[in-house]
Q: What sequence folds into this?
C-alpha cells in the first residue's frame, strides 16, 4: 500500500511506546515540511487529536507549527470534555441499571479507556455503548427513557420493530438535556454469526473497572483483543483509533497469540491476522517474524488488504467522503460491503449478510408501507435507495 508521508508521520506519532528509532524517524518526517492540513484533518477523522499531540511533543520537534499545536490542543480539550461528561453519565447509568436489576456491560468509550490505559480520558468517545441481555432489552430501553433519554429515529410499527430487532444490533437514544448519545445493544454485531457470544457467558467472565466512583462491568480480558479486532474489521478500519486500541490491548506478553488463537477458533483467523499485521506495520506492535510471514503469505489476508487500500492509500486516509457522493458510494456500498463478506467463511454468516442486503430500515421511511405489506419491502428497496439518494441521505 502506497501511503502518504503524512500518514507515516501520523502513525509514528501514535506509537506507544515510542522507541528511539520511532523518535528519530518522526523528527525526520517533521523536518520534511508535511501537509499539516491533512494531518489535522486526519486527527479529527480518526479521533486521536490528544494522542497525536502527545506523540508529537514527546520528540521535542523544532518544526512543529504553533498554529497546528493550538488546533490539536483545542480538539483534544473538546474530546476531554466529552470524556468527562460521559464518565459521569455512565456512572449514573450503571447505578440506575443496577438498582433496577438489569445487568449491563459497557463497551468501548471511557470504560475501555480506563480498562486499557487506566485513564477514562485517554480516548475520544463518540457515544456510550451498553450491552444488555436480549431478554431485558425492552426493559433497558424503558429505563433509559425514564432516565431522560428519547429513542432516536422514526416511530416503528410492530412489524418494523420486530424486523429491526432481528437485523440491527442496537437502538440509539439521545439525552433530552445534554445531547449524550447511548447505543443500547442486545448483541455484539449485526450479524449474529460473526461474534456469537451469549450474554451470560460474557457476564460470568466480565471485568470490572471503577468509573467516577461506580463499578462498571465490561468485556472479559480474554475476549477483548478479538472483539476490538473484529469490531475494527467490520468497519474496514475506517478509524485508526480502533487499531490504536487493539495495539494497546495486545501489548501484554502472550496477548497476541491468545487473540489469534481465539480468532482461529471463532473462524475469524484472517481478519485478526490482518489486524495484527496492520498494528505491527503502522503502530509498531511487536510481532514474531514467523507470525508476520504467515500473515503476509495468507491469501485471505491479501484480499482484505487490497480492499483496505481504498481507505488508506494516498489522501484517502484523512478524508471522509460525503454520503451519497460517488466516492462515498464506492467506499461504503462496495468496498466496505466486500470487506465484510470476507470476514468469515461460514455459511450462516454469509446467508445473514446476503439476506440483510434486502433489509434497510431507512427505506421504511422513504417508501412507507403498512404492516400488511411489509413482506414487499425487499422488492421496493431499489426505489427506497433511489429516494434516499435523491434526498441526499
A:
Amino acid at each position: 500500500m502506497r501511503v502518504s508521508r503524512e500518514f507515516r508521520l501520523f502513525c509514528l506519532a501514535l506509537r506507544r511506546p515510542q522507541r528511539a528509532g520511532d523518535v528519530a524517524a518522526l523528527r525526520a518526517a517533521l523536518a520534511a515540511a508535511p501537509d499539516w492540513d491533512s494531518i489535522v484533518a486526519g486527527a479529527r477523522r480518526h479521533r486521536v487529536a490528544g494522542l497525536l499531540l502527545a506523540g508529537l511533543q514527546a520528540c521535542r520537534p523544532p518544526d512543529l507549527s504553533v498554529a497546528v499545536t493550538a488546533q490539536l490542543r483545542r480538539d483534544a480539550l473538546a474530546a476531554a470534555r466529552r470524556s468527562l461528561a460521559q464518565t459521569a453519565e455512565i456512572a449514573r447509568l450503571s447505578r440506575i441499571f443496577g438498582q433496577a436489576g438489569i445487568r449491563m456491560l459497557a463497551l468501548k468509550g471511557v470504560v475501555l479507556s480506563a480498562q486499557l490505559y487506566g485513564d477514562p480520558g485517554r480516548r475520544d468517545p463518540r457515544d456510550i455503548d451498553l450491552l444488555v441481555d436480549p431478554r431485558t432489552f425492552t426493559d433497558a430501553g424503558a429505563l433509559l427513557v425514564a432516565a431522560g433519554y428519547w429513542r432516536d429515529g422514526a416511530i416503528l410499527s410492530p412489524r418494523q420493530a420486530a424486523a429491526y430487532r432481528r437485523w440491527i444490533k442496537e437502538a440509539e437514544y439521545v439525552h433530552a438535556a445534554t445531547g449524550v448519545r447511548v447505543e443500547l445493544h442486545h448483541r455484539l454485531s449485526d450479524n449474529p454469526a460473526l461474534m456469537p457470544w451469549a450474554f451470560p457467558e460474557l457476564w460470568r467472565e466480565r471485568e470490572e473497572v471503577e468509573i467516577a466512583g461506580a463499578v462498571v462491568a465490561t468485556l472479559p480480558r480474554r475476549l477483548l483483543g478479538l472483539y476490538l479486532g473484529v469490531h475494527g474489521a467490520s468497519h474496514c478500519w475506517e478509524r485508526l483509533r480502533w487499531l490504536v486500541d487493539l495495539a494497546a490491548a495486545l501489548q501484554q506478553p502472550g496477548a497476541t497469540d491468545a487473540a489469534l488463537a481465539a480468532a482461529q477458533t471463532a473462524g475469524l483467523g484472517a481478519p485478526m491476522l490482518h489486524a495484527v499485521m496492520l498494528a505491527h506495520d503502522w503502530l509498531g506492535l511487536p510481532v514474531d517474524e514467523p507470525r508476520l510471514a504467515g500473515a503476509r503469505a495468507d491469501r485471505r489476508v491479501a484480499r482484505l488488504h487490497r480492499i483496505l487500500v481504498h481507505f488508506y492509500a494516498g489522501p484517502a486516509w484523512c478524508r471522509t467522503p460525503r454520503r451519497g457522493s460517488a466516492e462515498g458510494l464506492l467506499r461504503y456500498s462496495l468496498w466496505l460491503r466486500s470487506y465484510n463478506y470476507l470476514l468469515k467463511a461460514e455459511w450462516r454468516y454469509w446467508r445473514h449478510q446476503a439476506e440483510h442486503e434486502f433489509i434497510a430500515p431507512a427505506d421504511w421511511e422513504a417508501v412507507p408501507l403498512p404492516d400488511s405489506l411489509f413482506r414487499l419491502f425487499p422488492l421496493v428497496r431499489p426505489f427506497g435507495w433511489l429516494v434516499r439518494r435523491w434526498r441526499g441521505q
